[in-house]
Amino acid sequence: MMSYTEEFSVKSYETDHKGNFKPFAFMNHAQEMAGTHALSLGFGYDQLIESGNVWVLSRVHVKFLKMPVWREELSMTTWHKGADRLFGFRDFKVIDKKGEDVILATSSWLVINHLSRRVQRIESVLGDEMKGALSEDAIKEPAQRLSTPSNALFAGKRVVCLSDIDINMHTNNARYVEWAMDVISPKIGYNMVVKELLINFNNESLPSDEIDLYVSYDPEIFVEGKRGDSSIFQLKIISA
User: Which of 214, 216, 111, 211 minimizes the C-alpha distance to 171?
Assistant: First the structure.
């Protein structure tokens, strides 16, 4: 199937104090749907792990055109757009019951060796097997590489726990979104409505790693997680 669609209603545990759909909840749906669709096309987790490789999410750009709310019924579709050397590209679109777009997203993925953790060229792993690409864009430009503002200040620390770790044996991407939201000043976060979310996943983190979190509020909200001098993730929020 060239694209894959799931219908769901927004659960209470996927919402914030206002009943709005949390960004990390979108990330959870996206990663699960990406895996299901890739599996149906012949290059999902089960197929890649046979050669000792796995997909990992590298960059994401999400646009929330209208923030879904508790109990709202949604239809979410994903498709892949092919690959360019190291990156595989996948887009997402969420529509409401009226058929109107509410969330658009594009993502860039890497293939890494499960043991060495080194990035692999996609064609060296999949050859010509990455079929079923659609030349359709939810967001035309690939998710961009982010630069941390020089005015970012230390705002807290997280220790990676076992519950943060996923089947790829590292901190799950959605966790970083939760960490970033938690470290934003409550005075700002309480009334914030996320319009766009841009994320770079730069390095893995593992159980017991201590991640220092840095925040900037000018010109946009920006959060970076670092382990020593290594950037683990960067996240930019454009809000209303």
Answer: 211
